[in-house]
Amino acid sequence: MSYFTNVNKINYEGPKSTNPFAFKFYNPEEKIGDKTMEEILRFGVAYWHTFTEDLSDPFGASTAIRPWDKYKGMDLAKARVEAAFEFFEKLNVPYFCFHDVDIAPEGSTLKESNENLDTIVSMMKDYMKDSKTKLLWNTANNFTHPRFVHGAASSNNADVFAYAAAKVKKGLEISKELGGENYVFWGGREGYETLLNTDMKLEMDNLGRFYHMAVDYAQEIGNDVQFLIEPKPKEPMKHLYDFDVATGFAFLQNYNLQDHFKFNIEANHATLAGHTFEHELNYARVNNMLGSVDANQGDTLLGWDTDEFPTDLYSTTLAMYEIIKNGGLGRGGLNFDAKARRGSFDPEDLFHAHIAGMDSFAVGLRVAKKLVDDNVLDGIVDDRYKSYTEGIGLDIVEGKTDFRELEKHALGLTEVKNESGKLEHIKATINQYLLQAYAAD
């Protein structure tokens, strides 16, 4: 059965194309440097937003029109698999991602839930035999069900800790069976509402213990999956233990987990933490902790996680600049943790949304590669910090001086002269590169 009868395979047609079902800038076979766009960008489809999202919000009922929603229970789960692999093939996307409850409904017991998962995973495995689309990452939803009201691995209830562990155990087994390249932890409930009833030290210690158990079990079953933590502030808990990359990195170091984990960084989460997307990417990159990306954007006029498809070319350019400087994403990818707007309810809108996002990152890739090749930003930064390449600056960097020597140097100064940061010129230069990127086409 076809669920997208009005859509054929999405092909690259170039910037002048007026076909709404064609890529204008994303050409999977185009080489950027020594790799193709497809190899660098490693796009993934988020199962939850694309196949389970009904476009409801806190103030309105669902609006999504989905052909598979006529089914219920396991029949619905099976129909979603059929729709998903049709979508993957027509979009020609190399990866997908899911939470356990996205692909199979929870049963009345954990045993029944696992049996449901086994049925759907077996079905997915059969589809994957004839599909190019692979599993970028999977994860356990340890935040939606009421049992996780006080957290999962950080819950005050040991039974909940055990239940969450059982779900992750199953998730790691599924990851191995489907050949997943990463496994993600999103601690949406790993935090607290008030210190009045919270033992923060115990909760954080337990969270550290939980992650170590996951690492140990993956090794036990021979699953060399890359573990990822996805930081997020504010939602839904007030105080989260993985607020941003810096907080998460400190946590990993404190519990000796930094060699086992990297970060899955989401653009909208970065802005909710009061950072730019490129800030979080840069922080992870310079600490060798950049693993994967959830590609989306938020609405700057709204202070919550709107999960919009990325269309801001300035943002995608600066993001790809960090990714290129990182040497790529390794086993990670660009997963579209994004949903169509509530008013974009037709099945075809799912294609329009992904095309827009993929084209936006393709533009960002081409521009960022040119900025790197031309040494534009590196040259500016190197020149700005040139005082640390010689004299007293080099002594500081190499640890060859102390306060007495620095005082002696300062006393000998007749003038301290700074140079302009030229920020407006830098931004204008980036604009110039953006506008010229496809001028020849």
Q: Largest sheet, order of strands side by side?
A: 5-6-7-8-10-12-13-14
Helix content: 40-55%
SSE pattern, N- to C-terminal: EEEEHEHHEHHEHEEHEEHEHHEHEHHHHH
Mean pLDDT over the full residue set: 97
Shape, per Cα inertia axes: globular
Structural class: alpha/beta
- Compute the number of strand runs: 14
Query: Main beta sheet, described?
Result: 8 strands, parallel, barrel
Strand percent estimate: 5-15%
Unreliable residue stretches: none
Describe this structure in words.
With 441 residues, the chain is α/β, with parallel strands linked by helices. 46% of the residues lie in helices and 11% in strands. It has 16 helices and 14 strands. The chain has helices at residues 37-41, 47-52, 73-91, 100-103, 110-129, 158-178, 200-220, 245-254, 267-272, 277-286, 313-325, 347-373, 376-384, 391-397, 403-411, 423-436, and strands at residues 11-12, 22-23, 31-32, 35-36, 43-46, 95-99, 134-139, 182-185, 191-192, 226-229, 239-240, 261-266, 290-294, 334-336. An eight-stranded parallel barrel has the order 5-6-7-8-10-12-13-14, surrounded by four helices. Strands 1-2 form a two-stranded parallel ribbon. A two-stranded antiparallel sheet has the order 3-4. The protein starts with 10 loop residues before the first strand and ends in a 5-residue tail after the last helix. The mean pLDDT is 97.
